[in-house]
Amino acid sequence: MFTKYGHIGHLLHSPAFEILLKLITHVRTTKNQDDPDMLQLQRHLSSSKKVAGIHKLYKPTIVSHPTAFLILSSLQLFDQPLNPTKKMELPVGLQFDEASPEWFSKADNAWQLTAATLVGMQSVPGLIILYGSIVKKKWAVNSAFMALYAFAAVLVCWVGWGYQMSFGTELFSFLGRPNVALDGKYLLTRAFGGKLPNATMIYFQFVFAAITLILIAGALLGRMNFHAWMLFVPLWVTFSYPITAYSIWNPNGWLASKGLIDYSGGYVIHLASGVAGFTAAYWVGPRATVDKERFPPNNILLMLAGAGLLWMGWSGFNGGDPYNVSMDASLAVLNTHVCTATSLLTWLVLDIIFFGKPSVIGATQGMITGLVCITPAAGVVQGWAAIIMGMMSGSIPWYTMMILHKQIKLLKHVDDTMAVFHTHAVAGSLGGILTGFFSSPKLCRLFYLVDNWQHYIGLAYGIHDHRIMAGLKQMGIQLLGIVFVVVVNVVITSLICLLLRLIVPLRMTEDDLKIGDDAVHGEEAYALWGDGEKFNGSKHNSVYGMEDFAVPSKA
Q1: Measured between alpha carbons, how far is 153 from 175 in angstroms, rounded to an integer?
Q2: 3-class state of residue 176 by DSSP
Q3: What are phi and psi of 334, to 5 degrees?
Q4: N or C: which terminus of the chain has fewer CB atoms within 10 Å of its end residue's CB?
C-alpha cells in the first residue's frame, strides 16, 4: 500500500502502534510535512485506531521508548537525529561485523546447517543401516557400501562442478554453467536464496544430491558391479541431476519460471531417483534367481533403526527449504510427520485386511511413501490436506506394489530390489499432482515471498475462489514437470548405462552373485553360519508383499 513506509505495516498491532500514531500526528518538520506517503500512512493509521491525549506526547517520551526511537530513525522524520537518553545497540552476539555482514542471518544460517546435517544423517548412517539390514546377509556389506561411496563421490563432484551446474550462472534454460565452487570469496558471498552464504547453500544442496544417488542404489542392490557403480555415480550427478535441479529449483529454470511447485524435492529427488533407479535396474539385469525369489532381511531391528533416522531426518529435509527460520518451515515439518504417520497406518491396515498380518517391512514402505508424497507440498498445504495425502500415499503405492506389479509385464520383468519405482516414482508423482490440487495461495506466499504469489494456486482453491482456470493451469504445470523428469531420467540414465557397459560389466559375475560380500569386498557383515535358513518357514519375506514358499521337510 505504501511505497516508502510499507516496511512498518507489520507493526500495526504491536505495542509500539499507539506511540507511532502519536509520533506521526505531531510531526512538524518541513522535511516530511507534505509527504503524500506519510499523509496516506497517517490517514490509514488514524482510521485503524483512535488515540486520545495526543497533545500530551512530548519528544522526551518518544526518545525514551526504544521501539519508537528505532521507528523514528528508520522513517527519518527529523532533520537532525535524535539523541536517546540511552544509546541503542544490538546485543553483542547480533552485531554486524566482517564475519556477519548485514545481509547475513545467524539464526537462519544455524538452522540451515542443522537441517542439512539432518538430511545428511538420513544417508549416513540412515540409509546405510537400512540398506545393510533389509537385504540378505550375504549382501549387507555391499549394499551399505554402495550408499557410503555415493555420499563421498557426490560431494567431490558437487563442489567441483555440480553445484554451479544446478544453481549457478545460466548456460541453458535447463542447465547452469560448469564451474568450481571452492573459491573462498565465492563461498562467503550471499547465496541465491535466503540470508545465507554460498558455503551453507552448497552444503545444504549437496546432501539432497547425495541422497538421490543413494535412493537409486536401492533399485540395484544385490547384483550391480561395484566398479560400474563407482563410474555411474559421478556420471549421473553430472549429466542428469543438474538438469532437473536447475529447471525446477533454480529461479531462472524454465519450469520454475512457469510456476511449478516442488517444495523440497518430490520431482528433483524422488521422482527422478525412482525413474532412474528403475531404468538402471532394467539395464543392469536381475539378481540371481535364488536371491530374487528369496531375499529375507538379515536384521529387521536395525532396519527399523535406519528407517527411524530417515523419518526424523525429514524434519530437515522439508523444514530447511524455506531457507529461513519461518512459520512456513514449522508448518512443513508438522505436515511431514502428519502425512507420514497417516500413510504408515493406512499401509498397515491394508496389509492386515488383505494378508492377515501386520508387516514391519510393509509399515516401513508406507512410512517412506508418506515422506515422499508430502515432500513437494510440505509447506504449501493445510494440515487436513496432509492427512488426505497420507491416506492416498499409503494406499495407491500399496496397490501398484502389491497388485499391479504382479500384473504388468514390464514391472515384473525389471528387478527393482527396494521397490524404488513404487515408493519414490509413484509416490513422488502422486505428491506432485496432489500439490497441484491442494496448494494454498496464502501458504505459497509465505514460502516463495514474491509479489506474484497469486498464480500459485491449487485446483481446489481455484474452484473455491472462482479461479478454476488458474487452478487447472497449475495442475497442467505439475503434470508437465512429471513428464519432463521422467523423460530426462529415462533417456540420460539409459545412455549412461549403455556407455558404461562398453567399459565394465554392469552386473556381477554368476560366481560373485552366488558368494556375495566375501567375493566382492573380501569382507562379511556377520561372523555367523548360514544365510537366513531359520526363515525358511516364513511367508513374509518379499519387499513386494506376501508370497508363499514351500517349507522344507524336517525328515
Answers
A1: 21
A2: strand
A3: -65, -45
A4: C
pLDDT tens digit string along 466-507?
999 999 999 999 999 999 999 999 999 999 999 999 999 999
Query: Crossing angle for the helix pair 198-218 and 106-121, nearest 10 degrees?
Result: 20
Q: Evaluate if residue 57 carries a pLDDT over 50.
A: no
C-alpha–C-alpha distance, residues 525 and 518, integer Å: 9
Q: Where are the alpha helices (DSSP H) in 356-408?
A: 360-374, 383-393, 396-402
Closest CA to 467 of 480, 483, 451, 456: 456
Q: What are the b/e assignments for 371-405, b being 16+ CB within 10 Å?
A: bbbbbbbbbbbbeebbbbbbbbbbbbbbebbbeeb
User: What is the distance between the alpha carbons of residues 359 and 538, in angstroms, rounded to a whole number?
Assistant: 12
Q: Report the mean per-residue pLDDT for the chain.
A: 85
The C-alpha cell of 251 is what? 529461479
Closest CA to 237 of 201, 278, 271, 209: 209
Residue 9 burial (CB < 10 Å; 0-12/13-18/19+)? exposed
Cis-peptide into 358, omega within 30 deg? no
Residue 456, all three cell numbers: 500459485
Cα torsion through 405, 407, 408, 414, rounded to 10: 50
Distances (CA, A) of 336 to 2, 249, 333, 385, 389: 37, 20, 5, 11, 10
pLDDT in tens, 299-354: 999 999 999 999 999 999 999 999 999 999 999 999 999 999 999 999 999 999 99
Q: Which pLDDT tens digit goes with each residue over 119-160?
A: 999 999 999 999 999 999 999 999 999 999 999 999 999 999
Question: Burial letters for 178-195: b for 16+ Cβ neighbours within 10 Å, e otherwise?
Answer: bbebeeeebbeeebebbb
**In the chain, % of residues over pLDDT 90:** 72
The SS3 call for residue 50 is coil
Cα–Cα distance measured from residue 112 to residue 110, given in angstroms and rounded to the nearest whole number: 5
Query: Quick one: which of 350, 335, 401, 427 has its CA closest to 545?
Result: 401
Cβ atoms of 394 and 366 within 8 Å: the answer is: yes
> Which has the closest alpha carbon to 448: 315, 263, 268?
263
CB 438 within 8 A of CB 384: no
Q: What is the CB-side half-sphere exposure of residue 205 using CA atoms within 13 A?
A: 31
Please state, in angstroms and rounded to a whole number, the distance separating the CA atoms of residues 191 and 202.
9
The rounded percent of the chain whose pLDDT value lies above 70 is: 78
Instruction: Answer yes or no: are the C-beta atoms of 440 and 380 closer than 8 Å.
Output: yes
pLDDT (average), residues 189-214: 95
Q: Give the closest residue to 364 by CA, choosing from 132, 548, 543, 146.
A: 543
**The dihedral formed by the CA atoms of 342, 324, 458 and 426, expressed in degrees to the nearest 10:** -50
Q: What is the DSSP letter of 85?
A: S
